[in-house]
UniProtKB/TrEMBL annotation:
InterPro entries the UniProt entry points to: PABS, PABS_CS, SAM-dependent_MTases_sf, Spermi_synthase, Spermi_synthase_euk, Spermidine_synt_N, Spermidine_synt_N_sf
One GO MF term: spermidine synthase activity
PROSITE patterns in UniProt: PABS_1, PABS_2
Alphabetical GO biological process terms: pantothenate biosynthetic process; spermidine biosynthetic process
Record carries keyword Heme: no
Active site residues per record: 174
Key words, A-Z: Polyamine biosynthesis, Transferase
GO CC terms of this entry: cytosol
Family: Belongs to the spermidine/spermine synthase family.
Domain annotation PABS: ranges: 12-255
The protein, known as: Spermine synthase
Amino acid sequence: MVNSSSHPCIKDGWFREISDKSFPGQAFTLAVDSILYQAQSEFQDILIFSNKVYGTVLVLDGIIQCTEFDEFAYQEMITHVAMFAHSNPKRVLIIGGGDGGVLREVAKHKGVEEITMVEIDSSVIELSRKFLPTLSNGAFDDERLDLKLCDGFKFLEDIGEAGAQKKFDVIITDSSDPDGPAEAFFQERYFQLLHNALNPDGIVIMQSSENIWLNLNYLCDLKNTAKRVFPNTEYCYTMVPTYTSGQLGLIVCSNNDSIPLIAPQRSLSGREQEQLKYYNPQIHSSSFVLPTWADKVINK
Ligand code: SAM
């Protein structure tokens, strides 16, 4: 166990998530039962602590990435909205995702033949396997996995330059927020790289890092940036109490305009539905429906 007074985000036994840029004038706090790990990796500050309600909490550069209690709401939605919007995904690419949660969800799809995961920071994988084993739930040992430890942006640039013939059916960007190693993922050039790496009927999904309460115009800009590359772009969301305001947007895109992203393209078997706690076909479609004030801005 580590001395709690030594981490700048922890004061008087409380972890405080503060960002003057993304959410000025407010802070989200969680009581720290014990600090399990803290150190600076080559890429980011890593903090892992436990909380009575939320269980083990992973924090990168001061921002909560996941907690044991609510992680399924994020992992299931960012994975299955894209996977079920595709009629038969066989090759899947995950950019980021070091905690293993998205990998766990992709691995539930038995029709998937190859999963490539590109994570920049091997220490996030090692620490998540140690302190948050239910996140990956053994999926790092899945024989379909090809794990690459490098920058996801550079990976996409390299396969583009090499003229890779084998493209992806689904690409999931499960990155951290723009203030760090994931900065390049929120710009038009990244959407172009995704577009080039995707099969004609392919689907991409990414976490938007923001919410409709505090960053509506930013979300509108991000969606418009994606739309300049992908004619078929939609915004949907998931509800996660430990992300700012409890609401997190996802940007979903396809090269193919005729694919209705807002509806699953295939039905779930009883066994598939049994394995899921948040996602179902109804919530797939309803997650694209926004409150009026937000709809007017994001879907104008
Ligand atoms: N669910 C989380 C969220 O939205 O807060 C994201 C979790 S996951 C832990 C984010 C991962 O993206 C981290 O492991 C981080 O190392 C990885 N990452 C950040 N920048 C990256 C890059 N340029 N290439 C590949 N992975 C990256």
